[in-house]
Design a protein that fits this description.
By secondary structure, this protein is α/β, with parallel strands linked by helices. It is built from 20 helices and 9 strands.
């Protein structure tokens, strides 16, 4: 079975070749759509979110995983205090995003730095209490292990003293293509880690991405009772996630041994590190996601464009085949009817637009209902679990932060569901109304994501990252924390529906912060009395959270409705272009002499062959992508050791300095 990278390279080549063919045929809309599909696949980003409690070795793990240990600063106190994104770039470029001088509501400031300055912004030691107003560090670097489109998010610790860190990390969970949860072989899992893991498992369950979570046990080289802690960790992980202990994808690694390997090239240290097993497991999870999410959309666009380009060629060949005048008249009449129909579909008042809006209104109602159920689950957990945890009763403001985090995770999960369901609406609506113009056979691949408004040629609202939502405008934070959170999440998610997540989660956190001063008084020696007090004081927060969730759903639905309509308009333009070209070809063929007809027939057959080949290859590649998407990883052994069999490097490389995630 070929790797994702091999399939991707072939699809990119086919898209490039077909784009040239579209340009030669002066099929402007087909060429534009092919170019957009090529760009989406080439830049197709899959996200690995690395999370865990503070000081579990996350930054060291990433340095060893990317074989660039100087990139992620390691501090003696709390290390990472900001989200740091790392993706491939031809030249290294590092940007820190800062709050504007007038606070988080002002336009953000971008500042270019070099890697020696990362610690001055991204760590608690270099930037205590965030005195530099930093929100996000974005890194582009020519690391070959990222060349195939992997973006890594190094997140702050979960459950620590900075409660906004947990909220930021939780916000990325539903959209993560793979989640690396980092635990410590020298310490049992904490209560806050278990709370976070239950949340991560719930997010994975909602979006049906359970197999994307990989658990990593670091510091296996530290002399301690690692076997006992490992057994305890496995049991707690199984309980928190609802999975069987025997089937947990847990890999124990030694960051130090991997660093020794990088310094000396020692194969023994590489085996001791167990990183090849981790890389293989992670890569296989990403391969499945890539094949399903990225290749499917590109192949659908490829097939649709090939059909649009093929129709005029075959029309002219039919005419040149000496059909009778009555047959030609019938063909011409059918094409004119189709052209008129497409022109009608393209009008602003076309009936399908109202029907589509009704379908998205129904989607909005469903999402609002699920949002209410999600908030109900949050507060049920509050009543049955959080009120009985010592860590929350001892620090009530931490409880408020957890409730805000949980509500934010509800919004993030709804966004993922909204995107997937809108893609299904697009497919089904297109089929019913004859707008599925290429009769695409998606097969076992999921529906391709709806292209953004930017891709379909329409501009969305001009919004600052993470801003623009009325829930944010209505909330008086009294602090920049909530707005800053929205800024971070919105900056990564980008424009369109993704930016709504940041705004909503920022609003939810801000709403919780406004209650912090009140709950600080809720400290009683009598636990029963304290629980009753917390229930009373936090009751208004539930209604506020529900309102913000409903606002977020309304904006998501509006954005996705506009994106689907723009995509359908683009498909209509491509088809109209194809039909118009076919009608022109009929006139050209009628005017051709017999000698010209022979010559044109030969030339058209030459042009038809590669178009037919593209459609045949697209079908074959679709089957390969579907098969690759079904692959399940073998269970990696959790305990490292020199006697272990060396696992293959991801993508087919050797797993040492010459190998990498882009080796396929």
């Amino acid at each position: 079975m070929r790797t994702y990278d091999a399939l991707r390279a072939e699809v990119l080549g086919l898209l490039e070749g077909l784009t040239r063919a579209a340009q030669e045929q002066r099929a402007a809309e087909a060429a534009r759509r092919l170019g957009a599909a090529h760009e989406r696949l080439r830049e197709g980003r899959l996200t690995v979110v690395v999370c865990g409690e503070f000081k579990r070795g996350k930054s060291s793990l990433l340095g060893a995983l990317l074989e660039d240990r100087d990139l992620f600063p390691v501090d003696t106190t709390y290390a990472t205090r900001l989200v740091t994104t790392v993706r491939y770039g031809e030249k290294e470029r590092i940007t820190v995003l800062l709050d504007g001088p007038d606070g988080a509501d002002a336009a953000p400031e971008q500042r270019a730095i070099d890697r020696t300055e990362i610690a001055d912004y991204a760590t608690e030691g270099g930037n205590p209490h965030n005195v530099r107003r930093a929100r996000l560090v974005e890194i582009e670097t020519p690391n070959p292990r990222l060349a195939s489109g992997v973006t890594v998010l190094d997140t702050p610790g979960v459950g620590g003293v900075y409660r906004e860190h947990t909220a930021v990390t939780a916000a990325f969970l539903p959209s993560a293509d793979a989640l690396l949860f980092v635990a410590d072989a020298t310490q049992p899992l904490t209560e806050s880690e278990l709370v976070f893991l239950r949340q991560a498992a719930e997010a994975a369950k909602v979006t049906d991405d359970v197999d994307g979570i990989v658990f990593v046990l670091t510091k296996t080289d530290v002399p301690t009772d690692t076997a006992g802690i490992r057994e305890n960790t496995v049991a707690k992980l199984a309980e928190a996630t609802g999975r069987r202990a025997a089937g947990l994808p847990l890999v124990a690694v030694s960051n130090l041994a991997k660093q020794r390997h990088l310094e000396t090239g020692s194969e023994r240290h590489l085996a001791l590190s167990n990183f090849p097993a981790l890389e293989a497991l992670l890569w296989q999870a990403l391969e499945r996601r890539r094949a399903k999410l990225l290749l499917g959309g590109a192949l659908a666009d490829l097939d649709a464009a090939a059909l649009a380009l093929l129709r005029p060629v075959e029309t002219e060949l039919d005419v040149l085949a000496q059909q009778t005048e009555s047959e030609l008249a019938l063909l011409e009449s059918q094409l004119e009817v189709q052209k008129t129909r497409l022109a009608g579909l393209g009008k602003a008042e076309a009936g399908w637009r109202a029907e589509l809006r009704r379908q998205f209104a129904a989607l909005g109602r469903k999402l609002r209902s699920e949002g209410r159920e999600g908030i109900d689950r949050v507060w049920n957990t509050f009543q049955t679990d959080y009120l009985y945890r010592d860590m929350f009763l001892a620090t009530p403001e931490r409880l408020v932060g957890q409730l805000s985090t949980d509500a934010g995770a509800v919004v993030a999960g709804l966004n993922t569901l909204a995107s997937r369901r809108s893609a299904r609406i697009l497919r089904e609506f297109s089929a019913v109304h004859g707008l599925d113009l290429a009769e695409q056979k998606v097969g076992t691949l999921p529906d391709p994501p709806v292209p953004s408004l930017k891709v379909t040629g329409r501009l969305g609202d001009e919004r600052a990252p993470g801003g623009g939502m009325r829930a944010v405008r209505e909330t008086s934070f009294g602090t920049s924390m909530g707005a800053g959170m929205g800024f971070v999440i919105g900056s990564f998610a980008g424009p369109g529906p993704g930016s709504v997540i940041g705004a909503a989660i920022g609003a939810l956190v801000g709403a919780g912060i406004s209650l912090t001063s009140a709950v600080r008084t809720s400290r009683h020696s009598d636990r029963k009395q304290q629980r009753h007090s917390l229930q009373t004081e936090l009751a208004p927060l539930r209604a506020t959270q529900q309102r913000h969730v409903e606002d977020a759903v309304a904006e998501m639905t509006d954005e996705l409705t506009a994106a689907v309509m723009a995509e359908l308009d683009s498909r209509i333009r491509q088809e109209h272009e194809s039909v118009t070209a076919s009608l022109t070809r009929i006139g050209d063929a009628r005017a051709a002499t017999r000698a010209q007809a022979v010559e044109r027939t030969a030339r058209l057959r030459q042009r038809r062959t590669p178009l037919l080949d593209v459609r045949k290859k697209a079908e074959s590649l679709r089957a390969e992508a579907a098969a690759l998407g079904r692959v399940r990883p073998e269970r990696a052994e959790p305990e490292p050791g020199p006697a272990e069999k060396k696992a293959p490097a991801p993508g087919g490389g050797r797993g040492d300095d010459d190998g990498g995630w882009a080796d396929a």
